[in-house]
């Protein structure tokens, strides 16, 4: 398996992966809109035998009233073809992308996701850092991870995603 940055020739395959991984086209449409608007910072694919089988995307988020404002990204979405799930592809995408985000100088990541899945990568409930999600989601599914130790220390506020997320 190879994990690499998204290339222009991957767009249709990425859409196919996302459509298969989710119950509706909303996530695939969101990724298309974010790409068209130049809103993502990191977009990686997992390739197996020359086929794109997974995708992960990160966009800039803002923490209102935070001072100083940590360089924070939102992870969404993460998708793997159903026949390739539970084989470590999603985990490899997460680990590789978190390292890339850290190397790019980002301070923290937030995610709205499965509370059984993301803690294995170090994510904790965002409320422990005083962070709230702009969307009405259960507290245990909104999580945060410090890429730089202490980067969320003393930071409190409402996390705002790119406007495209509100149009899902």
Structure explained in plain terms:
This protein has three helices and nine strands, in the order βααβββαβββββ. A hairpin with an 8-residue loop joins strand 3 and strand 4. Helix 1 packs antiparallel against helix 2. Strands 1, 2, 3, 4, 5, 6, 7, 8 and 9 form a nine-stranded mixed sheet that branches. It is about 20% helix and about 30% strand. It is of the alpha+beta class and about 170 residues long. It has one domain: Aminopeptidase (3-Layer(aba) Sandwich), CATH 3.40.630.30. The radius of gyration is 15 Å and the shape is globular.
**Count of β-strands:** 9
Helix and strand pattern: EHHEEEHEEEEE
User: What is the CATH superfamily?
Assistant: Gcn5-related N-acetyltransferase (GNAT)
Name of the top-level CATH class = Alpha Beta
Q: What is the count of structural domains?
A: 1
Report the β-strand fraction as a percent range.
Answer: 25-35%
- The oligomeric status of these chains comes to single chain
Structural class: alpha+beta
Q: Could you give a short account of the major beta sheet?
A: 9 strands, mixed
Low-confidence stretches: none
Task: Report how far apart the termini are.
Answer: 31 Å
Molecular shape: globular
Q: Report the mean per-residue pLDDT as an integer.
A: 95
Q: Helix content range of the residues, please?
A: 10-25%
> How many helical stretches?
3
CATH names the topology as: Aminopeptidase
CATH architecture: 3-Layer(aba) Sandwich
